[in-house]
Specification:
The complex is a heterodimer of chains A (337) and B (495). Chain A is mainly α and 337 residues long. Chain A is built from 14 helices and two strands, in the order αααααααββααααααα. Chain A has a single domain (33-326), classed as Orthogonal Bundle (ABC transporter involved in vitamin B12 uptake, BtuC), CATH 1.10.3470. The two termini of chain A are 23 Å apart. Chain B folds into two domains: 2-233, P-loop containing nucleotide triphosphate hydrolases (Rossmann fold); 257-491, P-loop containing nucleotide triphosphate hydrolases (Rossmann fold, 3-Layer(aba) Sandwich), CATH 3.40.50. Chain B is globular. The chains are: A mainly alpha (337), B alpha/beta (495).
Chain lengths: 337, 495
């Protein structure tokens, strides 16, 4: 009777707790960001007829791409209960290195590959410092944030790399069967990341170490290896983001990407991934990134000053964190504790 | 086998051997080296010297937990090491997920869930859904998942570190059945418990450690409780019986009630609870795990909210909304969860003692090291806390940690302390000391409430017992009515 008896004692209490939460609030708790994004789109659509044109919607997606790619990698890092502050600088460094290779060889493909590889190497350095030297990732990547930025200045002499092949333009600006190339890129990257996180051992172990690092280690999860991997992934996806960014600007800027690490973290958090690790997912991050670029885009069309844009962005971030807290309380109520 | 820690020899030349298909109990007081030994066996710590073998295979000294598990040793730790946000099946097969694609390491969820259901069925826990997130399960259910996790790794040796601490007696019986079944199928079990009755019920042999040294191994069938206790503490000790305390009057509901609660509900489990505590009284609260005892205590001290009911403290109506207000009034709660709620493990023992009332050791708003030192030293002396006040309290043994946690509330000058499972996970000798501390506390006009799942403990030290069941007080047992049988009778739903 033992276990069963206990279960029956627990259940009425938790069932009662669930009943107290109305359905619409539960839905808001679960899909809050998506609901917010739809609301935002409706508001802008009412306020300005330009907003819902296909050209503008494509602009929103193009604007979101770099942040979305960096955010996908950042999601892995944050799920593992780490942080990567170096990605903004990584973007600058990889773009100047890759662009130089592109100019020298005339090969767009090679240039993009160099950017991704350079990003992976930058991530590897972060990963080694965190996983094997035991630095807290906040400090380790704060250090490499300056290190990579400085390296980008030194490498480029502080000057933008220009003279890229014109075919490179089509990465960020081109269309395939009427759909922006970057949409295919985002679908491919996010599809893959989502699959890895939800269906593969590697992905589940990322959740495991973010949830309880020591318990995962004692269960035989290769914690060090996985931590390396999430930083390498974050770096590599930043390299890919750098390619899109450089393509948009048609040049590689050593001063580019300042503050982008915070944008990526914001996208992850707005998307509902917990900064404490172990909870969340990559699809929320995509919604978060699109949300951010939608807000900026709409406000620009409405001619709101860029000063006020920042105020509103901050309010949105705080709102998203508030929603996260609310969601946590809901799930605790459901557990009946 | 030798293991040094800063300041202590945690383990000093211990040798032991366990045979295939036997249940070996590993016994000893807190700090005797049991936990260190099993951490080495499981690969979580590395020994300084010495070696061990399983089935004749030497385990390398630098083996990781994964290497050790591959050799067939699975460990179930005292603190459950499950991942709360992953599903039951994912926890059971963590780091050994069945894969549908080797190359891409894709998890075969259908197979994994089916295998998890099979394992749980052998544990008679098939009512636990394998896709539930672990933090939705009750403690005993989580314990079963831990056992399932060990079983699923197809192990030859299972080490269980106090698996029954959080279980009710019915759940313990189920666990023991499983352990016997495992033994009969040729699996070896090393079992650590502070409940010696259990050891006599389940174990074949017992090995006793003391101060990091091996004291001896005995066959349970040829040994006695008294023999094992004296091996553990180093000298013979009479089992304490119910202590007679100078008579405390039954509560009158009058002005000299220290604490009076009427019709308290917390909006959740706790419903309509009334109680009185007299000066100098030790009031016991009994009941099964999950009967609402802890929830009641937390609501009383403002750690959660009391949605209805009234509270009088020292004759005055009070509304305690936060633990801070409760402490200022003189009502303290000693958490059952020492490591997470009771202490700041990384801070020194001294810091923990004075933390809740720093003003008392300050001079002109600045902490006065002389006053602080005196306060800490006096508690270390009066409570016989063994350890250095400057050391992190996390390095102390369970019993000494608990004394530090109690010292914190004594330092605040609390007049009522609610002791929630005050002796959980601490050894026989420290238990007796904690009991003496509680008795000493409940004098000079102060009062104690003791919540315990160990009926023995309630019977031994309390003056009066309230039995809770499903969030309500179902029976009050006065001085003449207290016995193990009556408490268990009402706790399990008898009338």
């Amino acid at each position: 009777m033992g276990v069963r008896n206990n279960a029956s004692v627990d259940k009425p209490a938790s069932a009662a707790a669930v009943r107290r939460v109305p359905a619409w609030r539960a839905i808001l708790g679960r899909f809050g960001v998506l609901v917010g994004l739809l609301a935002l789109i409706i508001v802008f659509a009412i306020l300005t007829p330009v907003f819902l044109t296909s050209g503008n919607l494509m602009n929103i997606v193009k604007d979101a791409t770099t942040n979305a790619l960096m955010g996908a990698g950042m999601t892995f890092v944050i799920l593992a209960a780490e942080i990567d502050l170096s990605v903004g600088s990584t973007l600058a460094l990889t773009s100047v290195v890759g662009a130089t290779a592109m100019v020298a060889t005339g090969s767009v493909w090679l240039g993009v590959l160099v950017m991704i590889a350079a990003g992976a190497i930058a991530g590897l350095l972060n990963g080694v410092t965190v996983a094997y030297l035991g630095f807290p990732s906040f400090i380790a990547t704060l250090g490499t944030m300056w290190l990579y930025r400085g390296a980008a200045y030194v490498y480029s002499g502080g000057l933008a790399v220009t003279g890229l092949p014109s075919s490179f333009l089509s990465l960020a600006n081109g269309h395939l069967v009427g759909i922006p190339v970057v949409v295919f890129l985002i679908v491919a990257v996010y599809g893959l990341c989502h699959f890895v996180l939800t269906r593969t051992a590697v992905g589940r172990h990322v959740y495991a170490i973010g949830d309880n690092n020591e318990a995962a280690r004692l269960s035989g999860v290769g914690v060090g290896r996985l931590k390396m991997l999430v930083f390498v992934l974050s770096g590599a996806l930043t390299g890919l983001g750098a390619a899109v960014y450089a393509s948009r600007l048609f040049s590689a800027q050593p001063v580019g990407g300042i503050g982008f690490e915070l944008n990526a973290i914001a996208a992850v958090v707005i998307g509902g991934t917990s900064l404490f690790g172990g909870v969340g997912g990559v699809l929320g991050t995509l919604v978060g990134a699109v949300f951010m670029s939608t807000l900026t885009n709409g406000l620009i069309i409405l001619n709101v000053s860029s000063f006020w844009q920042e105020v509103l962005m901050g309010a949105v971030l705080l709102g998203a964190v508030g929603l996260d807290q609310y969601r946590k309380r809901l799930s605790e109520a459901r557990q009946g504790t | 086998m030798v293991k040094h820690f800063p300041g202590v020899n945690a383990l000093d030349g211990v040798s032991l051997s366990v045979e295939r298909g036997e249940i070996m109990a590993l016994l000893g007081e807190n700090g005797a080296g049991k936990s260190t030994l099993i951490k080495i066996l499981s690969g979580a710590l590395t020994q300084d010297s010495g070696s061990y073998r399983i089935n004749g295979t030497e385990v390398p000294a630098d083996a990781s937990p994964l290497d050790v598990r591959k050799l067939g040793i699975a460990t179930i730790y005292q603190e459950l090491s499950l991942l709360p946000h992953l599903s039951v099946a994912e926890n059971i097969f963590l780091a050994k997920e069945p894969l549908s694609s080797r190359v891409f390491r894709v998890v075969d969820y259908r197979k994994m869930n089916a295998l998890a259901r099979d394992v749980l069925a052998t544990l008679k826990s098939d009512h636990v859904s394998v896709t539930t997130r672990v933090n939705r399960l009750s403690m005993p259910q989580q314990q079963m998942v831990e056992v399932a996790k060990a079983l699923a790794s197809d192990c030859k040796l299972v080490i269980m570190d106090e698996p029954t601490t959080t279980l009710t007696s019915e759940d313990t019986a189920v666990l023991f059945e499983v352990m016997r079944a495992l033994r009969d199928s040729g699996v070896t079990i090393i079992f650590i418990s502070h409940r010696l009755e259990e050891v006599f019920e389940i174990a074949d042999r017992a090995t006793v450690l003391r101060d990091g040294k091996l004291i001896g191994t005995v066959a349970i069938a040829e040994s006695t409780l008294a023999e094992i206790i004296s091996m553990m503490i180093g000298h013979a000790m009479d089992r304490d019986v119910r202590q007679q305390r100078p008579g405390v009057d039954a509560p009158t509901g009058g002005a000299n009630d220290l604490l009076r609660v009427e019709n308290a509900s917390d909006g959740g489990l706790v419903k309509d609870v009334s109680l009185q505590l007299r000066e100098n009284e030790i009031l016991g609260i009994g009941g099964l795990v999950g009967s609402g005892r802890t929830e009641l205590a937390r609501a009383l001290v403002g750690a959660s909210t009391l949605v209805s009911g009234s509270v009088w403290f020292k004759g005055r109506p009070v509304r305690l909304r936060t633990p801070e207000q409760a402490l200022r009034a003189g009502l303290a709660y000693l958490s059952e969860n020492r490591k997470e709620e009771g202490l700041n493990l990384g801070l020194s023992a001294g810091d923990n003692v004075v933390m809740a009332d720093l003003a008392a050791v300050c001079r002109r708003g600045v902490i006065d090291s002389r006053r602080r030192g005196e306060a800490v030293r006096s508690f270390f002396g009066s409570l016989q806390i063994r350890g250095k006040p400057e050391s992190a309290v996390g390095t102390f043994s369970g019993g000494n940690q608990q004394k530090v946690a109690i010292a914190k509330w004594l330092h605040v000058g609390a007049s009522v302390i609610i002791f929630d499972e005050p002796t959980r996970g601490i050894d026989v000798a420290a238990k007796a000391e904690v009991h003496a501390i509680i008795r000493e506390f409940a004098s000079h006009g102060r009062g104690a409430i003791v919540i315990s799942s160990e009926t023995d403990e309630l019977v031994r030290i309390t003056d009066r017992i309230l039995v809770m069941s499903r969030g309500r007080v179902v029976k009050e047992l006065g001085r003449g009515e207290i016995s193990k049988d009556t408490v268990l009778h009402y706790a399990t739903g008898g009338r």
